[in-house]
Amino acid sequence: MENIIFRALIVKEVAQNVFERNIGGKKISELPDGDVLIKVLFSSLNYKDALSANGHKGITRYYPHTPGVDAAGIVVESNTDKFRVGDEVIVTGYDLGMNTSGGFGQYIRVPVDWVVPLPRGLTLQESMIYGTAGFTAGLCVNAFMEKGIEPKDGKILVTGATGGVGSLSVAILSKLGYYVVASTGKLDKIDFLKNLGAKEVIHRSEIFDTTNKPLLPRKWIGVIDNVGGNTLSTAIRSTDYDGVVAAVGLVESEKLSLTVYPFILRGVSLVGIDSAETKMPKRLRIWDHLASDWKINFDGIWREVPLDSINDEIDKILNGQQVGKVVVKLW
Ligand SMILES: NC(=O)c1ccc[n+]([C@@H]2O[C@H](COP(=O)([O-])OP(=O)(O)OC[C@H]3O[C@@H](n4cnc5c(N)ncnc54)[C@H](OP(=O)(O)O)[C@@H]3O)[C@@H](O)[C@H]2O)c1
Predict the structure, then answer these.
(1) Residue 16: which domain range?
(2) Which alpha helices (H) appear in 58-208, and where do they start and end?
(3) How much distance in Å is there from the Cα of 18 to the middle of ligand 1?
């Protein structure tokens, strides 16, 4: 197998901090050592992939590189008893697509500890409609449940709602009976968000406080925040007694300015979400939920593109213009 040439997105640094992205050929022998060689049938596009594809050194230090933090496919070589040739598997997170050749290539080779058997109830393609975004949404829902938040307790705010994590969060929470308020910058996507189950859709300017007050009127019992910055600060200051805010992303800003009052006067919990390094027992539990009792109706939330179209899709996600999930078909 080592001499087989496969197709992959290859990002090169052609001059200092100048990057070029092309579909090219790569040999299996160029993949890093690992326990399991996987033929990747589907991947999915995440914001982090776009950063890696654009030369973000905080994500990917060394180029040439193949991004793609998600991959679903079939085991073609295994040096472990845990997986056999022909097994259907998923890999999301860890170092995949960061400094390890990722899912925007037709093969990956990874350590056994990164590999999740495809849960019963999902196809490989469906697993990549979720991808890291859906898994992350699942971690947030799990955080609410662990803190005892039930649908009757109040409204849940989802920011960056038309994005990957956002749209899947809206869909999963709605399926579970929660009252979801979706915040977006794309008011032409109200129908899309309502079809996913959002009860209310608001413009993101409505949750961007400029008064700097330490506490704001109580609106949310839970928040899934994909954007960070003043939006996250506003959300925390607007969260009700014993509410939970899940910090996921930073598309607005990585900064967070606050006083301690929401925590000590309202008992608000700020929960950090890290999908990449989630430990295997919890990882398997979340995937099982996504495949069974939390499984959503995927209609209208995703589209499939071939690897050849990935460059345009990367530009769109970098500009905040993606809606729902993009699944990448590798073969
Ligand atoms: N912690 C983790 O484990 C984890 C896992 C996955 C992703 N993430 C992070 O979560 C964030 C979302 O990831 P994603 O893959 O879902 O990306 P995405 O599909 O691009 O979604 C981001 C959404 O945020 C909104 N947005 C974009 N620019 C904005 C701005 N300047 N201010 C406010 N909102 C803006 C847009 O939605 P609207 O137009 O609807 O507002 C956009 O669709 C990223 O920061 C990503 O790195 C973290």
Answers:
(1) 5-118+301-329
(2) 124-146, 164-175, 190-196
(3) 24
